[in-house]
Amino acid sequence: MKEKETKKIPKHVGIILDGNRRWAKERNLPTFEGHRQGSEVMRRMPAWFFSCGVEIVSVYAFSTENWKRKQEEVNYLMKLFDKVFGENLEDMNERGYRLLISGRISELPGDLPDICQNAIDQTKNNKKGTLNVCFNYGGRAEIVDALKTMILNGIEANQVHEGMIRKYLYQADLPDPDIIVRTSGEERISGFLLWEASYSEFLFLKKDWPDFERSDAEFVLEEYAKRKRTFGGNK
């Protein structure tokens, strides 16, 4: 009991969802099937962390660079997100999850900007965990957007400091991620939460996202508990 009480639990977990296409290719399945399976895992995954005491999960779902993919694949992904933020909204409310969507939402096609905003509004009072979906997101884009807004608001050079910049990030009220996980075996962060990740722990899993299970979430938490974070101070 004592060990359970003293175990370190991250408040905020970030996940780079990678490997959907690789998962499908290895099984001789269409790329779309990898994305569909990945979206199902994303729907189930928050409960695995929230039930263990994690308060926030941020996922890198679609980057500003992903528009370079084949149009057919991009169109399918937009339909998937339409379902995630629309049809799955009732499920999120029943579970008590708050949904945040970070990125250049206004640039999304069709009704997606309105669908995203509706999902945010409909879940804003939920208290059982926050799922922050980084959608049409880029870490550099986030910083550029923050600086543009600061200039438009008349912020002068002598007023600029780290706290001021943070105020203008997409989700200024969220704490930095304690640990960032990337699936698929790739070992880079690809622009995910660049400002916020300064002191995050990193964990790279050699498993494609569609294969991510509850046991993997438990492994992430066990691994985090072993880490000693010094934030530049003494060891």
Helix content: 40-55%
Spatial strand arrangement across the major sheet: 3-4-2-1-5-6
Biggest sheet overview: 6 strands, parallel
Radius of gyration: 18 Å
Terminal Cα span:
27 Å
Descriptive notes:
Strands 3-4-2-1-5-6 form a six-stranded parallel beta sheet, sandwiched between helices. It has helices at residues 2-6, 20-26, 31-50, 71-85, 89-95, 112-123, 139-152, 162-167, 214-226; strands at 12-16, 56-63, 98-102, 130-137, 179-182, 201-204. It is globular. With 235 residues, the protein is α/β, with parallel strands linked by helices. It has nine helices and six strands, in the order H-E-H-H-E-H-H-E-H-E-H-H-E-E-H. The longest helix is centred in the N-terminal third of the chain and has 20 residues, at 31-50.
In short:
With 235 residues, this protein is an alpha/beta fold.
Task: Name some characteristics of this structure.
235 residues, alpha/beta, six-stranded parallel sheet, 9 helices, 6 strands, 14% strand, globular
What layout of secondary structure does this protein have?
Elements: H1 2-6, E1 12-16, H2 20-26, H3 31-50, E2 56-63, H4 71-85, H5 89-95, E3 98-102, H6 112-123, E4 130-137, H7 139-152, H8 162-167, E5 179-182, E6 201-204, H9 214-226
Helix pairs in contact: 2-3, 3-4, 4-6
